[in-house]
Amino acid sequence: MKKATLLFMTIIFVFIGCADPNLEHPVIEDLGMVGVMGFDYIDQDNIKLSLTLPQPSKDAEEQVQQFTTTVQLPHQAMMDISTLTEKTLTAAQLRVVLFSEEFARKRGAMKVLENLYRDPQVGSNIFIAVVKGNVEDILSATYKDKPEINNYINELLTPRTMTAFSPFSTIHNFINRNTDEVSDPSVPYLERVNGDSLKITKVAIFKNDQMVDTLEPEEAKLVEAMKGKKDLPPLSITIPSADGTGEEQFIMKFTTSDVNVKVNGNLEKPKIFVHLYARGSVVDYDGTRHLSSRKNRFEVEEDASKHLEQKVLRALAFFQENEVDPIGFGDYFRLYNARGWSKEKWIEAFSRAEITTHVEVRIVSTGTLK
After folding, report:
1. Which CATH code is given to the segment(s) 218-370?
2. 8 A C-beta contact, residue 347 and residue 320
3. CA–CA distance, 34 with 113 (Å, rounded to integer)
4. Is the dihedral of CA 278, 279, 283, 288 positive or negative?
5. Start and end of every Spore germination GerAC-like C-terminal domain (predicted)?
6. 260 falls in which pLDDT band (50, 70, 90)?
7. For 19-29, how does the pLDDT look when each residue is reduced to its tens digit (9 = 90+)?
8. Are 26 and 33 within 8 A, CB to CB?
9. In the chain, where are the structural domains located?
10. Which of 165, 354, 339 is nearest to 257 (CA)?
């Protein structure tokens, strides 16, 4: 027994003594922290994956390193690019995942996001966005007077009041929406503008994991209101002019908003009524009416309500036509139809639902306008 124990201990010491110190866990200085991961379409089997790594050295000529490779799975890129850099790549600090519009339309985002979601190093609150053009070009472009690309895109996709029309989806949000049986995902849509800036210009709408179309910001703001979001950005509203021969425009800054959705619960003859209530201040106005007058203010409120009603109905008709439900109306119907429920059954019912809406706009302040 003693001889067996001695032999076992000898083997252990031999293996410990032969361990290669270069294969031990690297210290933080040796890690390459991936900040942004982007996907461009090649075909149904291969993807072009781009990564950005911040340069910790202040003496480095470039603030960020960018690498691009062709792989089949995201983690293959980590292994492949690790052979091109002196750093050990890690996704522990991954902040943003970008998809080109072509990739989002032809392959979809779900499989990629599921693979990332399985990695315990990858957080669930990583922002997702679709970009116009190629992700590789977006990441390699020069953005004057902007932070380095990792911080720039992360800050751009961080929720702010002025861009609150965007859903600001994370990996967790996207997977949850795509699998919850009552709604569909939507994510910000980025474009390069003026050569050296990125801008959230639209909202990308997904169906069954693939992008189907985009929604303009004005309609997207109302969609966020119908989701129950309270902190909405200012809205541009067009109304008939006082003499009825033209149009006027004013900018309304919301102070409060509320939505009430009523449904009949019948999937055979579905009916949906949406009541949207919004109170706010007029911060800009190009018309001739004196808004200090209660009568004039009431006329503007009525015209604005009708204008927004039409925008709401257009947005909902757009969703029905594309057979998507980014708002989540299905949640109201599932309460009445839990048995045998499926997203396919709901989307089919939603596409032929009778939808009515009523919007109430109330102006609580006109500032110093006269």
Report:
1. 3.30.300.210
2. no
3. 16
4. positive
5. 202-367
6. very high
7. 444 444 554 45
8. no
9. 26-215, 218-370
10. 165
Query: Which residue shows structure tokens 């790549």?
Result: 89
Secondary structure tally for the chain: helices H, strands E: 11, 14
The C-alpha atoms of residue 300 and residue 303 are separated, in whole angstroms, by 5
Q: Identify the weakest region by mean pLDDT among 26-35, 105-114, 188-197, 234-243.
A: 26-35
Q: In angstroms, rounded to a whole number, what is the distance separating the alpha carbons of residues 9 and 275?
A: 76
CA atoms of 125 and 12, how far apart (whole Å): 42
Place of tokens 């189907």: 212
pTM of the model: 0.85
Q: How far is 66 from 128, CA to CA, in rounded Å? A: 19
Whether the CB-CB separation of 33 and 88 falls below 8 Å is answered with no
Tell me what the mean pLDDT of segment 231-255 comes to.
86
Output the CA torsion sign for 152, 157, 161, 166: positive
Start-to-end CA span in the chain (Å): 101
And the tokens for 112? 């990629």
- 233 and 252 Cβ atoms separated by less than 8 Å: no
